[in-house]
Every structure is written in C-alpha cells, then in structure tokens.
Amino acid sequence: MIKLQTINACLAPLYSLEGMHIITVEGIGDRQRGLHPVQERLAEAHGSQCGFCTPGFVMSMYALLRSSKHPPTEEQIEDSLAGNLCRCTGYRPIIDAFRVFAKTDDSLYTASPLENANGQAICPSTGKPCSCRNETDVNANESSTLSSVKVYLPCSYNEIDGNSYSEKELIFPPELQLRKFMPLKLNGFNGIRWYRPLKLEQLLYLRSCYPDAKLIIGNSEVGVETKFKNAQYKVMISVTHVPELHTLKVEEHGLHIGSAVRLAQLQKFLKNVIAERGSHETSSCYAILRQLKWFAGTQIRNVASVGGNICTASPISDLNPLWMATGANFQIIDVNNNVRTTAAKDFFLGYRKVDLKADEILLSVILPWTRPYEYVKEFKQAHRREDDIALVNAGMRMHITEAEGNWIVSDVSIVYGGVAAVPLTAAKTEKFLVGKKLDDGLLDETFNLLKEDIPLAENAPGGMVEFRSSLTLSFFFKFFLYVTHEMNNKGLWKVGLDAANMSAIQSYTRPVSIGTQGYESVGQGTAVGQPMVHMSAILQRSLVRQNMLMTHQHPRISYMLLWC
Ligand SMILES: NC(=O)c1ccc[n+]([C@@H]2O[C@H](COP(=O)([O-])OP(=O)(O)OC[C@H]3O[C@@H](n4cnc5c(N)ncnc54)[C@H](O)[C@@H]3O)[C@@H](O)[C@H]2O)c1
Ligand SMILES: O=c1[nH]c(=O)c2nc[nH]c2[nH]1
C-alpha cells in the first residue's frame, strides 16, 4: 500500500526521506508546464497575498485530493488546511478557492436566506439574526458595486478547468516500488551518523553500542531542539522502520499501541475501534481521539509519534495526562531484550525526565478498555483552539459502581498538565471522592482539595496564575456535569442539574467557515478598482516559499511527500 501525506520539510531531515517519493509544489505544476487545478483555483479566488504560505495550502489540498477516494467534504478540507497559517489574505478566499473540490450541498450559499419568525435574516454561520445576507443582496443588485460573493457550484476535481495542465498526476516511481528497504548507516557533516535499523534486534544492538544516541521518529521535537535550541546529536537512530514499534492491536484487555505509531495513524485506528466496540469499553479511546483533534496540525500529526510525545515528557503534553488518567501502562525494553511494564502515572519523574535508563527504550503503550459506568474525559484550554499548546489540560476518569443499593464513586483519576514540571495527580481529591455518591453537595469541598492538590504559585512559570487555577476547577466541574448527566440519562441517578450549565458538556463543534466580503468598486480605467488576479499569484502558487513536504512511502510504511 502506498501512503501519501503532507509533512513539514523544515522538520524532515534528508536522511529520513530515503526510499520515499517527494512531491514539491513545483512538481505538481508551474508556469511552463501549466498549473495544477489546485494552484489555479487559489490564484483565481484571490487566495494569495504575500505568497509565503501559499505553497503549503496548495500542497495540503493536493494531498487531500490525491489521498481521498471520494471528493472530500468541506469539513475535511478545513481540517487538512489546519497547520497552515496565513497572515495576509485571510482564510476566507483560501477556503472559498478550495470549496469547489468539496462534495457538499451548496444550499448555504445558494438557498434563499434563512429567516426567523419575524422575517429577520438568520446568519447561516452563527444561526443568529444578522444583516449580512441583505447586504449581499443589495450589492448584487447594484451595477456599480461588485461583491466577491459568488455561488460556488460543487464540481468534481476533473471538472476544474486545468487550463494548460497537461501532465498526468505524479505516480509513485516503479523503481522505488521494486526496491527493498535496507538498514541505513549514513555519515553526515561534522561527524553526524544516522542509522536506520529494520528490526528490533538491530535497534537494540545499536542502542547497546551508542547509549547516548538520539532516537528519532517524527523529529518534530528533536528537529526543534537542533534548529532552535542549539542541541547537537552526533549519533541518531531512526526507528521509523522497526515493525515491532508499529504494532496496533486490539487485545482482550485493551489496545496495544507501538511507540513509533504516528498520531494520525492512531486517530484512524481509534475511530475504527470505537466504531467496532461497545461504547462502554471505548470511553478512553474517545477521550484520546477528541484530544488528538486539537493536537497540532495535520503535517505534525502525520509524523509525530506516540512514543515521541511520551518521551519528550513536555509539561504541556496533551496526551500524557490522559495516559495517566486512563490507567495505561508502558512497556519498556532493554538492550538485552528484557521487557518491563510500568504504569504511565509512575513514568514522569521530573522536568523532561522519564523512567528510562540509557539502555532502555519505550516499546509500547497498553491502553485498557473502560468498564460499564466508567467515564473518561479530556480537557484542554489554550489561547486559541487550533494549533496551540495548552495553558492547562487534563485527563479524568471515574468509575461508578453499585454498593448496597447506592451508585458510588469506586475509582477516580484526575490528572492535570500545564501546571507543573510533570503532569500532576490530584491525589487528595481522588481519595476524598472514592466511596461517595457524586452530587453538587460535594463540589465545595472538592474544589478546596483541588486547590491544595494543584497549587500554582504566584510566580509559576507560564503566568496567568489565577486564570489557570480557575481552569483546574472548571475542568472538574465539567467532568462532574458530564458523569452526572450520563448516570441521569441511564436512569441510575436523579441528580438535578442546572440547565444553564449544560452547555458545558456539549462537545465543541464548529460549522464549516463561511464568509462574505462586500465592497464598493469604483472602476477607473480597465484595472483600478477591479478584483483582478494579481500577477505574482501565479508565481506564489508554485514557488518554494514554505517548507512543506508530501511523501509517498512504499510497502510497509511508504509515504508520498509533498514539498513546497
Ligand atoms: N513542532 C511542532 O509543531 C510540534 C507540535 C506538536 C507536537 N510536537 C512534538 O512532537 C513530539 C512527538 O514525537 P516525534 O515522533 O516527532 O518525536 P521525536 O522524533 O522528535 O522524538 C522526541 C523524543 O522522544 C524520544 N523517543 C522517541 N521514541 C522513543 C522511544 N521509543 N523510546 C525512547 N525515547 C524515544 C526521542 O529520542 C526524543 O528525545 C511531541 O513530543 C511534541 O513535543 C511538535
Ligand atoms: O502534546 C502536545 N500538544 C501540542 O499541541 C504541542 N505542540 C507542541 N508540542 C506539543 N505537545
């Protein structure tokens, strides 16, 4: 199977691309050979200004189209563009440009405006009364006024006028397809050595020879360390091709997740598991899947690995509090092939310090199934929802069981990230809650204990202490509402919940972005005042401006790399 995906070139060492097919933005089309329809659309729809981010947007869209069997939905298009930041044009024309590739019902744009009982127009985006549609209509009727609002009829990829685009789509080169992967030993500048073992046995041997060597998977952390923090590693061992670290298995007691599994792969796997298993078993899977949605952008999730995130032991890791709260275990292997298991909650020892000796590596994560009436929830608050690191995050789990006719808390785990050098367990709070029937009478005492468990000193790194402290309480309050609501729904509890608070437990969903721009155009001559495609847009669509790659990898783990 050939896999095609976007990655960031700035975080992809050349050594790591051996055996892959790299497609760059120039590769898919340029002025001489003709532009690719994706490139063409972006210029036509005024989707580029300075052009710095343009190749990234083009390649993200291209990768999505090439890896989708069916036309993507608008949501998929927006998701695939996350991780590309534009500071000039704004996202409206970019998204509008690509909307034509979507399988969508265009009613939001074409249907007559929605109205409320008073005949007031309703904004299709917010669902609230607004005047934007009226303005659009006015603009449309005035001959002296041009509006950028166009009705985009859905059309398939092939219906786009590719103009002079004459090339067939790039294929995975047959010579790479026939080629067998070999273990690699590459020598670079300044005595750098790059190893790529193909078996666990070879990896353990290399580890025994070079206990100080840096293990690398996605390089999304190590790449930042070497580029921006002056870290230097002489010997690097890439573990991307060691099959034993890529396990993804459903087992009797839970999931077995290899440490080299990429986060995008994990997302896909969890979705399948959730679809196939009972919901009571997959509460942890759901929580991890929901957290992954807000973990960086597509290009990072395509490379960043489960083990890379765990072993980086970042205080703001989005997943580590969840591994701890869900009761996950980590399997660790040493150079003599001895495997030991440790609980995730005991693994993080200090600031970026984990329970791994020089002769050990992380092999896999064992994530247990949840039991009936066991609930897991993830939390993350950042400055902005997408592509940002957490101010505070958390993982919480609660198991409710029946004892002498009462449904009480039999087991609870509350873990916060972003509040200390390591994820912190609210131990006193957990102890207090066990054996209790959860109701709002417990909340005051619980909040007081949480403040003791998760103290944030006035000068705590990260600042915003009062806000972050209040987040620790509000996350628990949301969790209380969530568990209570679930138990009420099952008819096992009858705890009165204030309706005004219930929005706190609704999952956040955002409709696809739509926007309109109305402006007056006072034509002067043939060009001034007209919304014309600027000349440099054509160059920007196909120039190397931003580092982004798309890789094609072949068998076992093959990619297609897009590079712009
Ligand atoms: N650059 C970004 O925009 C961005 C965004 C989100 C996340 N991240 C980072 O991505 C990381 C995810 O992983 P990655 O695959 O890119 O990491 P990586 O390849 O950069 O490795 C990260 C660290 O984990 C160690 N490591 C990896 N696998 C190991 C194993 N099996 N046993 C022992 N040590 C191991 C490495 O030696 C290294 O110290 C997260 O930690 C996070 O910090 C980066
Ligand atoms: O767990 C993480 N989540 C993130 O969003 C992130 N960004 C950088 N490093 C990160 N780690």
From TrEMBL:
Coiled coil: none annotated. PROSITE patterns: FAD_PCMH. Keywords: FAD, Flavoprotein, NAD. It comes from the Eukaryota. Its EC number is 1.17.1.4. This is xanthine dehydrogenase. Signal peptide: none annotated. It comes from Triticum turgidum subsp. durum (Durum wheat). It is an enzyme of class 1 (oxidoreductase). Its cofactor is FAD. Residues 187-372 form the FAD-binding PCMH-type domain. It catalyses: hypoxanthine + NAD(+) + H2O = xanthine + NADH + H(+); xanthine + NAD(+) + H2O = urate + NADH + H(+). GO terms for molecular function: FAD binding; iron ion binding; xanthine dehydrogenase activity. The lineage of its organism: Eukaryota, Viridiplantae, Streptophyta, Embryophyta, Tracheophyta. PANTHER family: XANTHINE DEHYDROGENASE. The keyword Signal does not apply. It holds the Pfam family CO_deh_flav_C. InterPro entries: 2Fe-2S-bd, 2Fe-2S-bd_dom_sf, Ald_Oxase/xanthine_DH-like, Beta-grasp_dom_sf, CO_DH_flav_C, CO_DH_flav_C_dom_sf, FAD-bd_PCMH, FAD-bd_PCMH-like_sf.
